[in-house]
Amino acid sequence: MPRSAPFDRRPRTARRTTRRSRSTRPTRSTRRTRPTRSGRTTRRGGGKAAPRRSVSTLRLGFVSLLVGVLIGTTALGRVVSEHPAATVGVLVLLLTATLLAGAAHLRRTARRRRALFEANCRLDQIDLMTGDEFERHVAELLRRDGFRAVRVVGRTADRGADVIARGPDGEPIAVQCKRWRGNVGAVEVRNFIGALNAAYAGHRGVFVASSAFTVQALEEAGLAGLRLVDRPDLGRWLTGEPLSLR
Question: Are residues 153 and 91 both part of a single domain?
Answer without folding.
Answer: no
